[in-house]
## 1
Amino acid sequence: MTDITNFQTVEVETDLLILGGGMAACGAAVEAAYWAKKNGLKVTLVDKAAVDRSGAVAMGLSAINQYVGLKDGQNTIQDYVNYVRNDLMGITREDLVANIARHVDGSVHLFEKWGLPIWKDDKGAYVHEGRWQLMINGESYKVIVAEAAKNALGAENIFERVFIVGPLMDGDKCAGALGFSVRESKFYVFKAKATLVAMGGAVHVFKPRSSGEGLGRAWYPPWNSGSSAYFTIQAGAEMTCQEVRFIPVRFKDAYGPVGAWFLLFKSRATNAFGGDYMQERKPELENWAPYGKVKPVPANLRNYLMLLDCAEGKAPISMRTEEAIQKIASAAGDEKAAKKKLKELEAEAWEDFLDMTVSQALLWAGTNTAPEQQSSEIAAAEPYFIGSHSGASGAWVSGPKDLASGEYFWGYDNMSTVKGLFCAGDASGASSHKFSSGSHAEGRIAAKAAVRYIVDEKPSPKLDAAYLEKARGMILQPLKTYADNCNKTTDPSVNPNYITPKMFMFRLQKLMDEYAGGVTTNFTTSGPNLKRALELLQMLKEDAEKLGAKDAHELMRAWENQQRMYQAEAHVRSILFREETRWPGYYFRSDKPKMDDANWKVFVNSKYDSKTGEWTMRKVPVKPLFA
Ligand code: SFD
Ligand code: AMP
């Protein structure tokens, strides 16, 4: 049990505060260090874990999913913008996507320079998985990217294993962040002139498919708990696309990636009767025109066609690995060449998982799955909030001066609507398909702008001692609640005076699953269900004050789940506000089953007022950058 009276308050003063240590934060660190040196500024980075292996890339990756190839003339920025616009069913901030697209190759070239092995063909050209994706030997991807960030900032400016709870406000400006160590009894106050939020997306807001011991097994990392969303929501930043969740189709139960199979190996997925849903259900795509007719078919529509098969009793769905491997091998030439190619493909298939989803390789081994001999089951995962992949949720940020205007521009790239608060990676919204490389590039963009903001505006945040004391009390309260009550029952995990973080999480997940379109309802919801979800969320919010935590680790869990709860509320309110179904395959509103371009080809933005607890919602027009 942790005694809160022993908690020391540590104050750290800095110029630029980078929150998170993932892809966007590491990009930010490298860029900020360069500009900070020129301007004599201090940069501090805070990660809840260890930067070497934190965030979504902790296990490594087997592909870099965004590479535009501008130098070689492979593609144009407009090509990438078109791809993202189509994949998001028309709803995207093209200025933000273009800004990342014009910088992303630079990040990829840096990765290679720092030692990341990118596959090359006989002529020395990058091996593409698909049009935008490069194959890598990425087991140590994060370690390599982290090393550069750490070298740039210096160990003395990096705080690891410090969990950030929320913003430190100076009136309506962001003046830093508040958090605590998950190893020592320390409460942290980070005072900063500018703050860059890059604490990833949100996992485990919905009930996962995994249960029991496997509960933590998810596609995206369960330790990304909605800290970015909570931070920006509480700071009063306008949020966008909170309805645009992502549901990835993955190899079932261990969440192995499908990209290499579909794109590199050109595999098909078929239903239990051998039918190819992408072919058999093509006419359905007409209902979602013009996006249903584009190539590639948007990710949510690919999901949707598969889910229609499942709803008709045609599951399980299988990736036809054996068919794809045999086809490529036999095209290699005579029997000897085919055999050699088969061995090569077998190795590549296993490596694809070993590079980024080791547990999928273990599951294949444990189930005697030889991909060259038999197909393997795939399924839609549970919903995730991830603005950097094929979802779009995040803060509403300013675009760059040369590409953005009107409602899309207010001075500094990637600054949210709160002064001094910048966002990148999963934390910034409406600019999907940045993935690992684009998140790194966006971190660089945001950090450069944040330094410029500090130099131009010379902010001098003021802190109020009473405000800090109150915030400290609130953040540490779960420890006190537990300590005061844990001896009142024989089993401390069951106690009428507090709720444990895990039980709280189960309650959140159950209501989101059943009312907000989780796995149980085949991703279907409706107005009445969403209203019920809001009622239950309100009661959960009241009970959040009764969270109990036995130690610093549980204190982190307590706050992670409160962060998830706010992400959940933003999501439910946004789906309810958008009176149409635009992304079937991600979610379906049964009471508004059609897409309505006339009224809803707009962004749904939301804003929370932490003083009144009120949310406001509004539509913002989608303005194309390219015709
Ligand atoms: O194909 C706090 N991603 C893929 N990207 C690719 O480019 N190629 C792939 O092959 C990809 N695939 C993939 C991917 C992710 C995962 C999990 C798998 C497979 C299995 C996506 C990218 O990884 C993703 O887009 C970026 O990493 C996003 O970057 P960023 O910086 O927004 O998030 P992060 O890297 O997860 O970092 C978050 C950081 O925040 C810290 N943090 N720190 C302090 N206080 C708190 N409260 C905090 N909460 C979180 C984290 O520790 C971390 O450092 S494929 O299969 O899709
Ligand atoms: P994934 O492994 O599913 O995350 O996919 C990696 C990349 O390939 C992402 O950019 C996906 O959008 C893309 N992708 C995956 N499957 C397909 C597909 N069937 N058609 C087009 N693009 C795909």
## 2
Amino acid sequence: MSSKEKINRETLPDHIAIIMDGNGRWAKLRGRPRIFGHENGVQAVRETVEAAAELGVKYLTLYAFSTENWNRPRIEVNALMKLLVKSIRSETKTLQKNNIRLQAIGDLHSLGRTGYNELLTAINKTAHNTRMTLILALSYSAQWEIVQAVKSIAEKVKNNKLAVAEINKELFSAHLTTASFPDPELLIRTSGESRISNFLLWQIAYTELYFTPRLWPDFRKEDLYEAIINYQNRERRFGMTHDKVV
Ligand code: IPE
Ligand code: IPE
Ligand code: MG
């Protein structure tokens, strides 16, 4: 039996975020260059997007390239950018067919003109789709995002558009790149690493974290189901006591 049947559709997370990690190790195990792992990660993305949409998940955020990933060898960075452009181009049709809206967070201009334009075309083409929103985190880091938010708030205060007393949690959230998305209820990281690596720091304040040893290119629908079931067996207390929650 697939674990899909064990998922309670009533308590499905609205937003799942994934740190897709382990492509390099997956390739190394096969004696192949790291990019071979990235190429094989695309199939895992397809499966995950399809599984999430089929279940009725509303938002899926995938960490595809971090600010720090720019420090990798040039040959890998170039190959990743090429793969990104190629994948966006080839997958847009599937997104359209499945009524999925594409969005992106991060320093998108740093992707270069071709990457940026390709991304924008796909975002515009899928803008009216309603089944699920797929958010790609590209050249993204949470600290970068928080600094951007601080700068734009400071600018408004300086120009008398905003009073310091008006700054609160909600206002701060509204200045992040994720302003129009709810916070994720579940964050998955593959490859056995138990760290956040500068992903969504503000937004995961009360997110449930799930770490799996599976390397990203091996991640399949069943792995997503397992993560959701694990999440559904937890008690989210938000600082309250057990008695208050139930
Ligand atoms: C994740 O896999 C993909 C990106 C960060 C772009 P890695 O490339 O980090 O793979 P490992 O962690 O070296 O195995
Ligand atoms: C995090 O993975 C970034 C992405 C998955 C895009 P990394 O492989 O870059 O993270 P570290 O270096 O292991 O922390
Ligand atoms: Mg890694």
